């Protein structure tokens, strides 16, 4: 999503978000992420106004004090930025790819099913399986921190069954252009 | 929506596992305090979390940086043992190929950085005096962005220094330049020479002063 993203040309405007909209965003975040209200409060204090940064292709990035904290495509799910995810790694369900896939992930490739089902990979067990279209934190074999944020294209059980083709689409990864933007 | 259900379930288990005692209690469910964020050390060279440096394009410099800043982690990631553990998971062939790839990538990135620096050093800054009226001029400064200068800030600096209007505008070629009211070309040249404020790192040889007159005489 953030390949070839330039803050000079791809951002069309910044506006403070209305407090009523902020309230609905806050409740959406609390519903979508595994985050406690108290923790969210630490990330995004009620008194601090959220700023909406509109970008090309209907991407909206929300910033606090100029620092991006989460973003959204159309009215899709809200993704945390990677820096936020590193601080609070438990807010998204976790999947893990094997070591061989890291190289491709860092080049922005979507993650194929075998990367999750091989020895180094990890998918949640069947009883906690995820549906398709869920934001996930992508971790990597032997690494402590998340390497990317993605959205499942297939349910986790389906990934195990099909074991072919794209399993998780990459939304943002370490070293992409959103990563490069430290403040807006 | 099974996903949502799962999430709720996960939430509860996570909070139950949390041993930290709580102070505020909304809703009756065991409420956790705001958990402290995980501190991640980011590499000062490639900005990645340090464990991902090996996939970046500046591994050698990253290593040096980490050795200087956090020896403990350096030993964790780059000690003989760690390297051995890594080799264990990969075949020897794949390992050597990976190493080659990294070296190649690094060389490429270096060459790219060199080229960028060269280009930067070769790029010109043009200070143009444009005639408005017979006795009135504006000065346009073009090419500052090549030296990594924030045009908006530079315009602000000019405006406050000369007490005139200064703005960032697009010229007909679609490039951005700073237009300052009044004939201040010599002063701007001196400012660049003396590296005043944010105008840093521009070799004076790369600056030229041009005069532009209106076409009709």
Automatic annotation (TrEMBL), chain A:
Belongs to the TMA20 family. It comes from the Eukaryota. One of its GO terms (biological process) is formation of translation preinitiation complex. It is found in: Cytoplasm. InterPro entries: MCT-1/Tma20, Pre-PUA, PUA, PUA-like_sf, Uncharacterised_CHP00451. PROSITE patterns: PUA (PS50890). Residues 93-175 form the PUA domain. It comes from Lentinula detonsa. GO terms for cellular component: cytoplasm. Keywords: Cytoplasm. The keyword Transcription does not apply. This is Translation machinery-associated protein 20. Involved in translation. CDD domains: MCT1_N (cd11609), PUA_MCTS-1-like (cd21155). Its main location: cytoplasm. One of its GO terms (molecular function) is RNA binding.
Automatic annotation (TrEMBL), chain B:
Residues 125-196 form the SUI1 domain. GO terms for cellular component: cytoplasm; ribonucleoprotein complex; ribosome. GO terms for molecular function: mRNA binding; translation initiation factor activity. Interacts with the 40S ribosomal subunit. NCBIfam families: DRP1 (TIGR01159). The keyword Transcription regulation does not apply. It is found in: Cytoplasm. Residues 1-34 are annotated as: Disordered. PANTHER family: DENSITY-REGULATED PROTEIN, DENSITY-REGULATED PROTEIN HOMOLOG. This is Translation machinery-associated protein 22. The keyword Ribosomal protein applies. Belongs to the DENR family. Transmembrane segments: none annotated. One of its GO terms (biological process) is translation reinitiation. Keywords: Cytoplasm, Initiation factor, Protein biosynthesis, Ribonucleoprotein, Ribosomal protein. InterPro entries: DENR/SUI1_TIF, DENR_C, DENR_eukaryotes, DENR_N, SUI1, SUI1_dom_sf. The SUI1 domain may be involved in RNA binding.
